[in-house]
Every structure is written in structure tokens, then in C-alpha cells.
Write a structure and sequence with these properties.
This protein has 483 residues and is α/β, with parallel strands linked by helices. The protein folds into 4 domains: 3-121, no CATH class; 126-188, no CATH class; 199-257, no CATH class; 264-482, Uracil-DNA glycosylase-like domain (Uracil-DNA Glycosylase, subunit E, 3-Layer(aba) Sandwich), CATH 3.40.470. Helix content is 44%, strand content 13%. The protein has helices at residues 11-24, 62-71, 79-90, 103-125, 152-162, 199-211, 219-225, 240-257, 264-277, 286-295, 329-334, 341-352, 385-402, 412-419, 425-428, 447-452, 456-482; strands spanning 3-6, 33-36, 129-130, 140-144, 167-171, 175-180, 183-188, 320-324, 360-364, 371-374, 377-380, 406-410, 432-434, 440-444. It has a 5-stranded mixed sheet, covered by helices on one side. The protein has a 5-stranded mixed sheet with strand order 9-8-12-14-13, with helices on both faces. Strands 1-2 form a two-stranded parallel sheet. α4 (103-125) packs parallel to α5, α10 runs antiparallel to α13 (385-402) and α13 (385-402) crosses α14. The radius of gyration is 28 Å and the shape is globular.
Length: 483
């Protein structure tokens, strides 16, 4: 019986090529066995290799290729055989990838999910300790980690991108990733190295203590997100027992210390309504006068529940304008666009894309915060078509005053206000479409879309795509300025 021994690194790519060769040789699943590196051998293995057949093109759904690239890193010793058996059936029934009731597909999807989750845990729970001299040209760090699956190889490029300015090593029982001088190498696994504690460990503990919310302490949920098997390598895990033990008392103390008066936004709303009853001052002209007019907007009922209208912000000669959906809770209270969680995410991605926020004009398609109350919390609601239409003259007036070279529409509401069509934003993203008066509009998602994604791996992927869209905007502007 032919047996295929896959290498311990580059395993996913090697399995793919071997599977193509086996299919070309018409080897049924029961006629071939698989292993990886030094994994245990198989019974009845005669050591034969598959016939040297040149693998021709084999068409399978892209979803299978993506799934196989993850499943190959699972620890199940039968993962390669399971994949090949499913591929053997899939070549004749491409629709099999859509059969959610197929037992083999259900099992493979479960393995894929487990691997993606383990990659996320690797990204989140690796803790480096400094092992070199701090005054060296490149600082040196090392970490020990024990992933549930064989996920160091697919996880390592993330660390190379994030920590490219230092040399580091991540050792696991199965594989070691070494990054030196900007070059990433994968080596054999190693025993746990002796790593001494450093100042960073106390920083992790301090950070964890400060972000811990005793009112939301949920040990079961915490263990689901931070299983105990990772605790030995997490400095902050040492604080968990004390934090849980103190949580109930801290919640009582917080309740006793809570203010008994109305929430700040309710008081601010009352003050704003008093201001609205007073005569509006004369416009100052230009963009400043336009901002004054926007602050007194009564074009739709949204003003009645909002604290204030939030106009745009940025230099009057900005070549790039970013248009979002509407102010959020933080923007409504602070009176500035993009200062809440979505704005903080946007700031970080703008920096990574090489775009200076202080040289960019930021505004929203709708100028008042639309929300529904849930207890004392204000929950965001998407604006209606009528509300977008009511605010559109303000947006057009802002753009007429600015005359930017390019506008980036962040999300469906901005796309609707600028191009007349908000649907299909995920398919249209990255394109430049025609906006009002022929103004070029590049479409992408809103940062809040990234914050709402429940899958951490998908969130990281979509954030990278969002960064690429902003880089495309910067590149387009640079090309226009150079022309």
C-alpha cells in the first residue's frame, strides 16, 4: 500500500501536491496512507510511493482549498486521510461542499474551526521575555508556547509582521519559529527553555487588573476564551483567582458609589435643547459658517434625541475626505467625528496605511446620533433612507467647500449618500466610483463592521483588507499629485 510521509514544515502545501498526484494516479482513499514528519507509522505500510504521474489541473471549490489549508494543521492523525477521502468524492460532486448535513464535511469543518481558534489563541497568548542586551542593535526576545494543534507555522507570519523590528524565538514542543535579521525560519521543536521573568510580566498583570470588569465576571465564559492549559505561560493568569474572589465586593462598592443623578447624556440633551430655543447666531461664512448651520439642523426628527449635531473635522485644504455613517455615542457626547471605538480602530489603520489623520477631513453622511435605549445604554441604529436624504445636502455642502481630490466612503450609508446606492458594499469595496459632481469615491467598509465580527481570525483578515483599501486610496492620491 503506498504511503505518503509529509514534511513537518510546509505540510499543507505538500499535502495538496500529493493529493493531486494521487488523484491523477486514480488511487482510491483506501489504497493510500498518510503521515507527517516523525508521527507514528501505519499498519500494513509497504513503503511504496504513488506512481510518478504528472498531476494535471484538478478543479475543486475554493472553499475546499481554504478548509484543507487549515485542517492540515490539526492534530488528528487521520486528518490527511479524511481530507483525501472527501476530495475523492468532491471531484465528482462539487456541490458536496454545500451539503451541511454530510458527516465527513461536518467533521472537517469542526477541525477547521478548531485550528482557526488555536491560531487566534497563539496570536493572543504568546508572551515574549527579553533575553538579550537592551542596548543591542536589535533587541532579542523568546517565548514558550504549547498550542493545542500544530499551528505555529501558520501563526508565525503574524509575529513577523508585528515584531519585525526585533529578533525573537517562539519554541513549541513540535516546532520552533526563529526570526533574526528580518528572516523567518522554522526549525525542529525544542524542550521548554529557561526564561527568567522580566519587567514586562508585571506590566501584563497591571494591564489585566485594570481592564478586568468585576460586574461582568463570568468564570465559565472566561475559561472558554482563556482555557487553563494556557495559564502556565500567561503572567496575568496569576491575578485571576484574586480578581474573581474580590469581584462581588467590588461590584457592591461600585453600586454604592454610582451617581444617583440622571446620566450625563440626558443632562447634556436638556442643555442642548435650551440652546436650540435661543436665536442662532449669524453664519461666519465658509466651512466655519457651514458647521454652525449644521449644528442647528432640524431637517429630520433625529435632532430631538441627540445631544448635538456632529459636523466634519479636518483641514480645509485636505486632499482626502473620509465619510462614515453617523456619530456614535462617544461622538454625540464629545461633538467630534470618529472618537469612539470605531474611530480608535480607524486611527490605528490610518497610521499603518501611511495616512495622517490631521491631514484628512473626517465627517459622516448623517449628522445626528440615531439610537434606541436599552436600560441606560444607547444602542446604535442604522439611519433610514429618508434620514440619509435629509442630511445629504450638508454632506454635499461640506465637499463643495473642501473640494478634496478623493473621498473614501466608509460603509453602506456613506456609499448611498455619495453614489446613490448602498447595497453590495462587500463586492464593491476597493473600487473607485463616481460621486457627486464627478468626485471620485473609493468604497470600503466602516470600521464598526470590523468590531462586530465575532470570529477573531476573520476580524484580522478583514482588518488587513480594510488597511489595503486605505493604502489604495493613498497610492491613488500620490499618483494624481505626481501626474
Amino acid at each position: 500500500m503506498p504511503h505518503i510521509a509529509l514534511p513537518p514544515t510546509g505540510t499543507a502545501a505538500a499535502w495538496r501536491e500529493a493529493a493531486r498526484a494521487c488523484l491523477s494516479a486514480r488511487l482510491p482513499p483506501e489504497a493510500v496512507t498518510w503521515s507527517r514528519g516523525a508521527e507514528a507509522g501505519v499498519l500494513f505500510d509497504e513503503g511504496e510511493a504513488p506512481p510518478p504521474v504528472k498531476a494535471g489541473p484538478i478543479r475543486v471549490p475554493a472553499a475546499f482549498v481554504e478548509m484543507a489549508a487549515q485542517v492540515c494543521w490539526h492534530r488528528d492523525p487521520q486528518r490527511f486521510a479524511r481530507l483525501y477521502a472527501f476530495l475523492w468524492r468532491l471531484r465528482l460532486k462539487p456541490a458536496l461542499m454545500e451539503d451541511a448535513a454530510d458527516p465527513a464535511l461536518v467533521a472537517l469543518r469542526g477541525m477547521e474551526k478548531a485550528v482557526r481558534r488555536d491560531i487566534h489563541k497563539t496570536h493572543a497568548f504568546v508572551r515574549f521575555r527579553e533575553v538579550g542586551e537592551r542596548d543591542a542593535p536589535r533587541r532579542r526576545f523568546a517565548a514558550w508556547f504549547e498550542p493545542q494543534h500544530l499551528t505555529l507555522e501558520p501563526s508565525a507570519p503574524f509575529f513577523a509582521r508585528r515584531f519585525g523590528d526585533m529578533d525573537w524565538l517562539i519554541a513549541t514542543p513540535d516546532l520552533t519559529a526563529r526570526f533574526e535579521g528580518g528572516v523567518l525560519r522554522l526549525e525542529e521543536g525544542a524542550p521548554r527553555p529557561e526564561l527568567t521573568a522580566d519587567d514586562a510580566e508585571e506590566l501584563w498583570r497591571t494591564y489585566f487588573r485594570n481592564i478586568f470588569n468585576p460586574a461582568r465576571a463570568n468564570p465559565a465564559r472566561m475559561l472558554a476564551e482563556m482555557p487553563r492549559r494556557y495559564w502556565a505561560n500567561l503572567p496575568e493568569a496569576q491575578t485571576i483567582p484574586d480578581l474573581l474572589r474580590e469581584a462581588e465586593g467590588r461590584v457592591r462598592a461600585m453600586a454604592e458609589a454610582a451617581p444617583k443623578e440622571a446620566p450625563f447624556y440626558a443632562r447634556a440633551l436638556a442643555a442642548r435643547r435650551e440652546e436650540a430655543a435661543a436665536p442662532a447666531p449669524a453664519p461666519a461664512g465658509g466651512l466655519a459658517g457651514l458647521v454652525r448651520e449644521i449644528e442647528g439642523c432640524r431637517r429630520c426628527p433625529l435632532w430631538e434625541g441627540a445631544t448635538r449635531a456632529v459636523a466634519g473635522e479636518g483641514p480645509v485644504d485636505a486632499a482626502l475626505a473620509l465619510v462614515g455613517e453617523q456619530p456614535g455615542d462617544g461622538e454625540d457626547l464629545g461633538g467630534r467625528p470618529f472618537v469612539g471605538p470605531a474611530g480608535q480602530l480607524l486611527d490605528g489603520v490610518l497610521r499603518e496605511a501611511g495616512i495622517a489623520r490631521e491631514r484628512t477631513y473626517l465627517t459622516n453622511a448623517v449628522k445626528h446620533f440615531k439610537y434606541t435605549l436599552k436600560g441606560r445604554r444607547r444602542i446604535h441604529q442604522s439611519p433610514s433612507g429618508g434620514e440619509i436624504a435629509a442630511c445629504r445636502p450638508w454632506l454635499l455642502a461640506e465637499l463643495a467647500e473642501l473640494r478634496p481630490k478623493l473621498v473614501v466612503a466608509l460603509g453602506a450609508t456613506a456609499a448611498a449618500a455619495l453614489t446613490g446606492r448602498g447595497e453590495g458594499i462587500l463586492k464593491r469595496r476597493g473600487r473607485i466610483e463616481e460621486g457627486p459632481d464627478g468626485l471620485p469615491v473609493l468604497l470600503t467598509v466602516h470600521p464598526s463592521f470590523l468590531l462586530r465580527l465575532p470570529d477573531p481570525v476573520l476580524r484580522e483578515t478583514e482588518t488587513e483588507r480594510f488597511r489595503e483599501d486605505l493604502v489604495a486610496a493613498r497610492t491613488w492620491l500620490e499618483a494624481q499629485q505626481a501626474a
